TrEMBL record:
Annotated keywords: Lipoprotein, Membrane, Palmitate, Signal
Similarity remark: Belongs to the nlpA lipoprotein family.
One cellular component term from this protein's GO annotations in UniProt: membrane
Membrane topology: Lipid-anchor
Name listed for the protein in its UniProt record: Lipoprotein
Main location: membrane
Length: 296
């Protein structure tokens, strides 16, 4: 039988071991807590899940470079994102093209600016009932987005297809009233842009941006019946380049600069070109620090 002294020695050793483990666990958790508290979160507003993998690649770059920064995507209705960016609820946003931002700045009085160009998405024509725009009949209806920039773009798509003509004085933002030649007497049905895919059965054709089509389960290549060829050098496409935008006063914020730099890396370009081929064309350029070299 072990003596009381021996038992006490064993008990003391066990308690000492437990104490050491407890201190080690506490120190590790404290380290993890301190490490976590050093991460700067940049909230980026988006209106679609279509390109989450691109932002996963951005976060991977930020982690690889030990930047201490991570992007958190905040999904919101597109009509609310610029307001949330202007009031500071969001840090950046990545859901719009130049034309939409310009219109919002003018109509809402925002002081938002382009931090970077990212890619161009085609705006395609879809249909549940016809296989070609040549099959349009007199008086057919067209469902299209009701916001000024995307309605204008949709009408210009039909113009490029030779279906109608618009007043050239209205540039890239014509409205229904600016259609000067409509030989098939098409009827336009403007709706909130997420509704366009759902209303295809009730209209001859619908016109919508690629990300909205993807979210609705449409394949931009297989399911569209017409698309304007995406040539980055074509002036027609310049207003439709998608962007990262933020407050003009914060354009030099170091965290935001690093997010833009991460977006411009080869690994992010690879995700866009390999996983989104046919959906968007990579045209990245840093508009805040234009001479910043791309990272590997």
């Amino acid at each position: 039988m072990k003596s009381i002294k021996t038992r006490l020695i064993i008990l003391a050793a066990i308690l000492a071991t437990v104490a050491v483990v407890a201190v080690a666990v506490f120190a590790y958790n404290r380290f993890r807590s301190d490490e976590s508290s050093q991460i700067t979160t940049v909230k980026v507003g988006v209106d679609s899940d279509s390109y989450n993998d691109i932002w996963d690649a951005v976060n991977a770059e930020l982690t690889k470079n030990k930047s201490g920064i991570q992007v958190e995507l905040v999904h919101m209705d597109g009509s609310q994102i610029n307001a949330a960016t202007a009031n500071g609820e969001l840090d950046l946003n990545a859901f719009q093209h130049h034309a939409f931002l310009d219109d919002q700045n003018e109509s809402e009085g925002y002081d938002l600016t382009t931090y970077a160009n990212t890619f161009i998405q085609p705006m395609n024509v879809y249909s549940d009932s016809i296989e070609s725009l040549d099959d349009l009949k007199d008086g057919d209806s067209v469902v299209l987005p009701n916001n000024p920039t995307n309605m204008g773009r949709a009408l210009k798509v039909l113009e490029r297809a030779g279906v109608l003509k618009t007043n050239p004085d209205k540039g890239y933002l014509p409205t229904e009233e600016d259609v000067t030649d409509n030989p098939k007497h098409l009827v336009f049905n403007p709706v909130e842009y997420p509704q366009v895919p759902r209303l295809l059965p009730d209209n001859a054709v619908g016109i919508i941006n690629t990300n909205v089509a993807i979210d609705a389960g449409l394949d931009p290549i297989e399911d569209s019946i017409y698309s304007v060829p995406v040539n980055p050098d074509d002036e027609y496409n310049l207003p439709w380049i998608n962007i990262i935008a933020g407050r003009a006063t914060d354009a030099k914020n170091p965290a935001y600069v690093k997010v833009v730099e991460a977006y411009g890396t080869e690994s992010v370009k690879k995700v866009i070109e390999e996983k989104h081929a046919g959906q968007c064309i990579y045209v990245f350029s840093d508009e805040v620090n234009p001479n910043q070299p791309a990272q590997d």
